[in-house]
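Q: Hi! First time asking for a complex rather than a single chain. Here are the components, and I think there are two in total. Is that enough to go on?
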Amino acid sequence: MTTKQEERHKYLDLCIPYVFGRLNPGNRKQFEAHLASGCEVCSAELARLNEALALFPLTLKQEQPHRKVKERLFARIVSAKRTSESRRELPRRGLKKETPITMATEAVVTSQRSWFGYAIASVALLIIVALGIYTNDLIITVDTQEQKIVALQTEVAQREEMLKILQSQHIEMVLMNGMEPSPSGYGKIFWDPVKKTAIFQVSQLPMVPEDKEYQLWVIRKGEKLPAGVFAVRSEKEQESYFKIMNLNVESKKDVEAFAVTLEPKGGSPQPTGSIYLLGTTSLD
Amino acid sequence: MWLLALLVQRTEQNKQDADLLERIQRKDQQALALLYDRYAPVLYPLAVRIVATREDAEEILQEVFLQVWEKASAYIPDRGSVYSWIVAMCRHRAIDRLRSKGHKKKSKETDLEPSQSVLHATSDSDPHDLIVMKGYAESVRSALKSLSRLEVKILELSYYEGCSQSEIAKMLKMPLGTVKTKMRKGIQKLRQAVGKDEV
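A: Yes, that's all I need. Here is the structure of the assembled complex.
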């Protein structure tokens, strides 16, 4: 092995501990410098390792986090944006954050030796406390408003996505009817077979307990393929629940039916519960 | 042919992810929401598996997508797909939290039995993803079947517990060289699952 080959071999050996995050800071720095120098061999090796290891979590049972996690994420994004904007605004406006405190301190110092001074200081302190409470209320109001803004932004974005799907030239649709457990339920799927995006909407389905979820199935050549889970957990969702999703179905001719069953939370590899909605492509 | 079809689907998905990332760089919140919907059901159980508490896992999930939002330009396509980049970020954050002072995981398996988590896989995100992911999960499971229990255990200790090769050698009372060889072999077999290895 030549010196150059040995050198390359040394770096290849570092790829595995690097992707596992187990290189010491010195070796890590050296390895990253080597990568930055443009070594295609190590970059390709890293790509292969990353791809292989990224498959590992696929063996875990998939689970949708609570929807509040997403709401909090977007609230943090909006809040960070607002903070950075207000930081830019403050110097321009010439505001001083410490102004009320400075005023109060000055009041205490100048009237220290007289009753009048104590009275002024007390009033100033009361004003500060009142301002504090008022500010706190304002912060709560702003947080609530921000959450509403995030919810509205998400809704607007969803509607835009829906419009894009509905504007498609080759839109396909299948209606789903309520079955025995929920005869009043109904649903529909519109999808763009070219872009493979879909709008899935259901109404009048019973609310599900925490340990259960509905699961959508695509029935293709007699095979039941899982196509996502969802839960109806509020009256609003019971009235109408919809989601935008990808759907790998090219044409109605490709599938025999769509069905919705009630399954344990997280879904099942094959249907185990009762059928709540069924839509056959032949009837449309 | 089946593997080829999976690869074609996966390539298409990578392309869609790269498009979403480009939109995220332009501060498109809808793109981030779509990426979140696509991968949160995979990342969340991964974080739970590592840190063992749902509160921590939820926090990690938010941090990962905040990082995607703020540092989308840091993604280097030559080092793997968007999916693998996000998974690596999630794993690193979870392992960091696991190692952080004061964090106590409920249990730590040190016997040779792989955990049950690798033995089953289900999918519940949107249908297109599901078909792709389902196929991949099946490939991984079948690849895992060709691994010895020891190889799976070593990969699990490394991947989910963040153990170094020396720590694993000590834990399993075996030479460091054996751990390195087993780990390399295990990863090589896993690579076969993605159909990009010459083995």
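A: The radius of gyration of chain B is 17 Å. Let me know if you'd like any chain examined more closely.
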